[in-house]
Design goal:
The complex is a heterodimer of chains A (187) and B (132). Chain A has helices spanning 2-21, 27-47, 51-75, 91-111, 125-133, 138-159, 164-168. Chain A is mostly helical and 187 residues long. The longest helix of chain A is centred in the middle third of the chain and has 25 residues, at 51-75. Chain B has helices spanning 2-23, 27-52, 58-88, 119-123, 128-131. Classes of the chains: A mainly alpha (187), B mainly alpha (132).
Chain lengths: 187, 132
């Protein structure tokens, strides 16, 4: 019973704060509304018995939203929400598409004959997950690692201010890179 | 019945995220909408794990993949935002419509100054793509 109440509070809160993200004027407030939405869904996942994944999601989202808040304040013209403003296009169409998607998904939720529950949850789901990614699903784990590494490299390359054409010339033929401060030995 | 409730939560989160991703003009706000949509996938996968096949770890692995997708989306989204902002002073999706079909009314003059990275020569060739 208590679980149902907690889930109901979390579910309603998560959706409400998700809506708040696109309603509030202040970008900082939008970021923290999104954080609230993520933390509440993390609690909902904790209720399913996935203690490791729930805590992982909550911790990751807290860090991610801190970074997001910095970017929001960097890139938005109205970070503090001191003046009311909206930056939307085709609001009516988007609302119609979103409501239509919800109706279709909700109809699917109640019309699809979901399979019966087979088996019981393991005593320690985290152990089961760890054994899966180190055994049967090792390919998934290796791909995830590779993708994360590629993301680090690509994000660094994209955000570097001076690229190789700035450093080695348009035809990349320069012997020594043209850097504001030379590096290396023998300066 | 709990499976349906969790899936309904996921559907609601997905729809809210879809609305945000479609309606917001700021690139960062679009990313927030996408994050909400991935979050819905996480909720649905976790619920499917517990209520259909808890003895298999498939659902948990799917949650792990969705969490990774969210992190990658965030990192690459900010990287692209930074790159396009540096190159062309673009921070709204309407200003980065170079690949769009320009049959509709797209007013570039309202969006402040553009950078010097070749945005201007594209303007003379609108409509060429329709002929080929």
């Amino acid at each position: 019973m208590a679980e149902t109440v907690v889930f109901a509070v979390c579910a309603v809160g998560a959706v409400a704060s998700g809506v708040m993200v696109f309603v509030v004027d202040s970008m900082a407030r939008a970021t923290f509304a999104l954080l609230a939405s993520f933390v509440l869904t993390g609690v909902a996942i904790l209720l399913l018995g996935l203690s490791y994944l729930g805590v992982l999601i909550i911790l990751m989202m807290v860090m991610e939203m801190m970074i997001m808040a910095v970017f929001m304040i960097m890139y938005m013209m109205n970070p503090a929400g001191l003046m009311p403003m909206t930056m939307v296009h085709n609001k009516v169409g988007s609302l119609a598409v979103a409501i239509g998607a919800f109706v279709v998904l909700a109809a699917g939720v109640f019309l699809v004959p979901w399979p019966e529950r087979g088996g019981t949850p393991p005593a320690d789901p985290t152990l089961a997950l760890g054994e899966a990614v180190m055994g049967e699903y090792m390919l998934v784990m290796m791909l995830v690692g590779l993708v994360l590494f590629a993301t680090m490299v690509a994000a660094t390359v994209l955000t570097t201010h001076r690229g190789r054409y700035d450093r080695y010339g348009d035809d990349l033929r320069r012997e020594r890179p043209d850097d504001p401060i030379d590096g290396g030995l023998g300066r | 019945m709990m499976l349906e409730t969790y899936l309904l939560l996921a559907a609601a989160l997905f729809s809210v995220g879809l609305f945000g991703a479609l309606s917001q003009q700021s690139v960062v706000m679009v990313m927030m909408g996408l994050e909400l949509m991935v979050n819905a996938v996480i909720v649905a996968a976790a619920a499917f794990w517990l209520y259909t096949s808890p003895e298999r770890p498939d659902g948990q692995v799917l949650v792990l993949v969705a969490v990774t997708a969210m992190a990658v989306e965030m990192a690459m989204g900010f990287a692209v935002t930074t790159a396009i902002f540096r190159a062309r002073d673009v921070d709204m999706v309407d200003m980065a419509a170079d690949l769009a079909d320009h049959s509709g009314p797209v007013d570039h003059s309202n969006h402040g100054h553009h950078g010097d990275h070749g945005d201007h020569e594209h303007h003379g060739h609108h409509g060429d793509g329709d002929d080929r």
